[in-house]
Write a structure and sequence with these properties.
The chain has 126 residues and is an alpha/beta fold. Helix content is 15%, strand content 32%. The protein has a seven-stranded mixed β-sheet. A hairpin with an 8-residue loop joins β5 (97-102) and β6. 25% of the residues are buried. Bound molecules: zinc ion (ZN).
Length: 126
């Protein structure tokens, strides 16, 4: 991806605490914000409708999602702590980016940002 990615500090904090709250189950949140030609900015979160929290990326029925162009991607947690996408994750890719946060959900070190192919993306926190 040739865009610079910026994620708001409060979004990072919310994702980490949400993941802690649902542990040992997996949590899922939608990342919202705006994308420009050179820049992508994630500044808010949405709880997906009909979210289910299980041990797999069972997630939510994507076809039931409202068409909302502010949704840039999906963040979910890996209670195992593994910071790699599973095959299922990549097959269920929604939006432009995927964020995975792994146990113990303490800091940026426990977060990876990925593109559709599973490549790691750099980002800045603002
Ligand atoms: Zn996953």
């Amino acid at each position: 991806m040739n865009k610079e990615i910026f994620i708001k500090q409060s979004v990072v904090d919310s994702i980490l605490s949400y993941a802690q709250m649902f542990h040992p189950k997996e949590s899922i949140l939608l990342l919202t914000g705006k994308t420009g030609r050179k820049k992508m900015e994630i500044n808010d979160l949405q709880i997906p409708p009909l979210a289910t929290h299980g041990h797999s990326f069972s997630g939510f029925p994507l076809s039931r999602l409202p068409i909302d162009f502010s949704v840039i991607g999906v963040a979910h947690s890996h209670p195992s702590g593994v910071l790699r996408p599973s095959t299922t994750d990549l097959n269920h890719f929604y939006g432009k980016i995927m964020m995975i946060t792994g146990y113990p959900y303490q800091s940026k070190k426990n977060i990876v940002l990925l593109d559709r192919k599973g490549n790691k993306l750099e980002y800045s926190i603002f």
